[in-house]
Amino acid sequence: MGLIADPQEITPGFWLLVSLVFIAPVALMLLVPRRWLWRAGLGWLLLPFIAMAAGFVLLLVVGAGDPSATPGNALLAVGYIGIFTIIPWLLVASVGLGLGLLARRIIRNDKPPRGVRPAPRAPQAAAPAPAPVLPATPSGEPAPDPVFEGLTTDDLHARVRTMARDHRFDESLLPVRWFPDNDAPFVHVDHRGFHIAKYDRGQPHSERVTQDLDELLYWVADEVTFHMAAQEVAQGLTHADQFSSRVLAAQDRLLAERHPQWHQRWLTDPASPAAFYRRKTQTP
User: Fold this and answer.
1) What is the CB neighbour count within 10 angstroms for residue 221?
2) 188-212 tens-digit pLDDT
3) How many CA atoms lie within 13 A of 38 on its CB side?
4) CA 28 to chain centre
5) Model confidence band, residue 281 (pLDDT cutoffs 50, 70, 90)
6) What is the pLDDT of residue 89?
7) What is the model's pLDDT at position 64?
């Protein structure tokens, strides 16, 4: 046999050994957990050195008592074998490990392709705010909304909005905000009747109560037209002393045009927001 082996002399066992040398690192890279990946690859590359160290120790143990079984001779024998195995092993093992890493990326998708960032995780939806709990009745059921004259607070707000549309009032100024605060008026219903009050940090002040729905609607119209008038005159105001007379004239015109009956009541209403400015203009 020359330097190149005759194919007929290559046994099936040889091909099986070569196949295992390639297949084993591929399987190793596919099966090992990612955190142990580099340790497993390094261990596979150093496997011949581990085998040579084990062979060196084995030669010394087996040849104990033999004068020729010296550490030098054992090292020479192991080194001679290593010369013909280490370099081919490193080449074949490197190819096998590379194929294993490639197969791992394709099959297990451990790592995204270069230049492509992994998709960010979708943000978790915030937990919905708990619904307000109504006071419980003795039976454990939530207490129903207060009702007066067949109207709840929601019904009253609907009546106020209808009134504003019918008389062309600015609906953004209506006292039907979702939460009473910021010193703004707010209307609601309880067992005593219909309420209108201003709230500061949740505490009511300047509260008025009536059992007459028309009276409450008048109070709302008075509040809304006063603020409509104030917004109107503020645009052309040049001096603070002009505000009182101008806001009175503007509100007088708005109420007279849109609800004459309420306008007549407003002229002598001491609780109207405009009453302060009316007294101010009458003071010499």
Assistant:
1) 23
2) 899 889 999 888 777 888 889 999 9
3) 1
4) 41
5) confident
6) 74
7) 66
245 neighbors 253 (Cβ within 8 angstroms): no
Q: CB neighbours of 52 closer than 8 A, spacing ≥ 6?
A: 78, 79, 81, 82
Distance in angstroms (rounded) separating the CA atoms of residues 255 and 238 = 25
Tokens describing residue 226: 């006063």
Q: What is the pLDDT at residue 167? A: 92
| Residue in 256, 271, 248 with CA at minimum distance from that of residue 185 | 271
Distance CA 192, CA 57 (A): 102
| Packed helices 12-31 and 37-45: angle between N→C axes, nearest 10 degrees | 150
**Could you give phi then psi for residue 186, rounded to 5 degrees?**
-150, 140
For the stretch 107-147, pLDDT in tens is 755 444 444 444 445 444 444 434 444 444 455 555 566 77
- State the pTM of this model: 0.48
Structure tokens at 68: 């020729």
Instruction: Calculate ∠ Cα 73-76-78, nearest 5°.
Output: 110
Token reading at 159 = 């009546």
Cβ atoms of residues 91 and 22 within 8 Å:
no
Do 233 and 250 form a contact (C-beta atoms < 8 A)?
A: yes
Q: What number of other Cβ atoms are within 10 A of residue 37's Cβ?
A: 17
- Bridge partners for 185 per DSSP: 198
What residues pair up with 207 in beta bridges, in sequence order?
none
The pLDDT value given to residue 112: 44
Q: Is 41 exposed, middle or buried (0-12, 13-18, 19+ CB in 10 A)?
A: buried
Q: Where are the domains of the chain?
A: 12-108, 153-282
- Report residue 29 as tokens: 């890279």
Counting Cβ atoms within 10 Å, is residue 236 exposed (0-12), middle (13-18) or buried (19+)? exposed
Task: List 249's β-bridge partners, or say none.
Answer: none
